[in-house]
């Protein structure tokens, strides 16, 4: 069985609510390593990527807040992911806000010729500095990773694009900014909205998503934004949106991805313990990762 490497990325520079920098602690506290070991994996916790202290934060661009900090954190993460995947390990990357996924995907792109991405999220994360309503970079990582947006983000780690849009699938979308919707339509990424999940069912959606992300690639990176789940099950997130994926649908999605045997790496992001109730969201994250790595009822 493949060895798992846990990498923490305690960064909150991609958005404006403090606390998501404590996500890695909350997820570790919920027993991630022990639970993966119980499933039979060898697990190494590599500790955290260095993140500059909040006291040094400065906003230079209103449309790309904390750009320098985000880029430096992502490049440090990219090196770790490249080394882990290059040596045949499966990284489990703990955010931090979703901007860190640009680092995960940069590392993947350095290690693999072709890979697919399933982006599990209430949001599209397909904004650019020109479309963003907030200036928060966590609304931009998917666009940047397919080569759309500001050069400082699209060119991160010297690889562009990180992933081909036809191998990218958004699952769970229900909050998209209007200009972002236009970018999504033009980009060629595939999208299964909550309405699609209602109509087709999670089983059919995930089978299709896995096929789209895996065809012609070496495997799949899952970018798991906890706000993809309904806030009822994951209240500890900075940008909650009603009408999300249920507890059961979430586990089904992870089980199907696990069974497909295509998973290369995963990031688990947007867990904010300050907004959470007694680490419910941290625990939810760990449960989903367990299903993703093969935990079953029987
Ligand atoms: N990773 C996230 N939670 N992203 C939320 C993005 C929200 C909004 N679309 C923005 O650009 O600001
Ligand atoms: Mn997101
Ligand atoms: Mn989101």
From TrEMBL:
Record pathway: Nitrogen metabolism; urea cycle; L-ornithine and urea from L-arginine: step 1/1
Q: Which reaction does it catalyse?
A: L-arginine + H2O = urea + L-ornithine
What CDD domains does the record tag this protein with?
A: Arginase
**SUPFAM superfamilies in alphabetical order:** Arginase/deacetylase (SSF52768)
Its EC number is 3.5.3.1
In the record, what terms sit under GO molecular function?
arginase activity; manganese ion binding
Q: How is the cofactor bound?
A: Binds 2 manganese ions per subunit.
Which BP terms does GO give this entry?
arginine metabolic process; urea cycle
Q: Which residues form a coiled coil?
A: none
For this UniProt record, the keywords arranged alphabetically read as follows: Arginine metabolism, Hydrolase, Manganese, Metal-binding
Q: Which cofactor does it need?
A: Mn(2+)
Q: Which NCBIfam families match?
A: rocF_arginase
User: What is the recorded name of this protein?
Assistant: Arginase
- Record organism: Alicyclobacillus hesperidum
């Amino acid at each position: 069985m493949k060895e798992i490497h846990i990498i923490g990325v305690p960064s909150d520079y991609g958005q404006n609510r403090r606390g998501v920098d404590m996500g890695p602690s909350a997820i570790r506290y919920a027993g991630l390593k022990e639970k993966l070991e119980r499933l039979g994996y060898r697990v190494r916790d590599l500790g955290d990527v260095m993140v500059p202290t909040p006291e040094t934060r400065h906003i230079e661009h209103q449309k790309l807040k904390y750009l320098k900090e985000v880029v430096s954190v992502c490049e440090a993460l990219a090196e770790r992911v490249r080394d882990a995947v290059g040596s045949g390990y499966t990284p489990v990357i703990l955010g931090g806000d979703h901007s860190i996924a640009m680092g995960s995907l940069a590392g993947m792109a350095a290690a693999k010729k072709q890979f697919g991405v399933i982006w599990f999220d209430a949001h599209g994360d397909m904004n650019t500095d020109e479309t963003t309503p907030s200036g928060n970079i966590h609304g931009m990582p998917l666009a940047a990773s397919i080569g759309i947006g500001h050069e400082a983000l699209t060119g991160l780690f010297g690889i562009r694009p990180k992933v081909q849009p036809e191998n990218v699938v958004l699952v769970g979308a229900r909050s998209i900014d209007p200009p972002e919707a236009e970018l999504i339509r033009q980009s060629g990424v595939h999208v299964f909205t909550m309405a699609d999940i209602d109509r087709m069912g999670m089983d059919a959606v995930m089978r299709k998503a896995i096929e789209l992300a895996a065809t012609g690639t070496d495997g799949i990176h899952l970018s798991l934004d906890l706000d993809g789940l309904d806030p009822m099950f994951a209240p500890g997130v900075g940008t909650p949106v009603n009408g999300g994926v249920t507890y059961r649908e979430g586990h089904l999605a992870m089980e199907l991805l696990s069974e497909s045997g295509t998973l290369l790496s995963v990031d688990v992001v947007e867990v904010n313990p300050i907004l959470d109730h007694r680490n419910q969201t941290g625990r939810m994250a760990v449960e989903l990762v367990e299903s993703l790595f093969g935990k079953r009822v029987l």
